[in-house]
Design goal:
Layout lengths: L5 E2 L12 E2 L4 E2 L8 E2 L4 E2 L12 E2 L4 E2 L8 E2 L4 E2 L9 E2 L4 E2 L9 E2 L4 E2 L8 E2 L4 E2 L12 E2 L4 E2 L8 E2 L12
């Protein structure tokens, strides 16, 4: 029987070396004829692991699929708050994350909105504004009233200056 940490591809192998070390991303118990993948959320960065406990948990901000030999960074717009994540979670609507490897998402700022999985704040269009923090859709961007105007990404309308006017909504 093969010792732990090595794998024999033929049943009944008894040589201490057997046929090969257990490959990265997996572990091999004594007598293994095939490797067992490290569970999702963990990885095996070295050959010859003998138990599931020797697989390493993915750190916060990273994830790992079953059988991984290393963790993968969460992409922009996603996060992993704790170690051992099998996947990254998209930022909820009303939040965003521009960096890779994040453990949380940032609040969407006034003057724009953030849909689920946003990597940046989408600014309200010119002629509209929003004072809402954590806005999740363009419906929070409201038209500037007559006598006011709004620039792209404005958190509120501005009054027209002396000698100027905005005759209709959305200026």
């Amino acid at each position: 029987e093969c010792p732990a940490g090595v794998v024999g591809e033929d049943g009944g192998l008894s040589s201490p070396a057997c046929s090969r070390p257990c490959p990265m991303g997996s572990y091999c118990a004594a007598g293994s004829t095939s490797p067992t993948a490290c569970a999702a959320g963990s990885y095996g960065a070295t050959e010859g692991l003998t138990t599931a406990d020797e697989c390493t948990l993915a750190p916060p901000g990273f994830y790992s699929l079953a059988g991984a030999s290393g963790p993968s960074s969460c992409g922009a717009g996603t996060f992993a708050p704790s170690e051992g994540s099998p996947e990254c979670t998209p930022c909820a609507a009303g939040s965003f994350q521009s960096a890779k490897g994040a453990t949380s998402c940032d609040a969407c700022e006034a003057g724009g909105y953030c849909e689920e999985g946003a990597v940046a704040v989408t600014p309200c269009a010119a002629g509209t504004s929003s004072a809402v923090v954590n806005a999740s859709s363009a419906t929070t961007c409201t038209l500037a009233p007559p006598g006011f105007y709004s620039t792209t990404g404005a958190s509120g309308p501005s009054s027209c200056g002396a000698g100027t006017f905005a005759p209709s909504e959305g200026s």
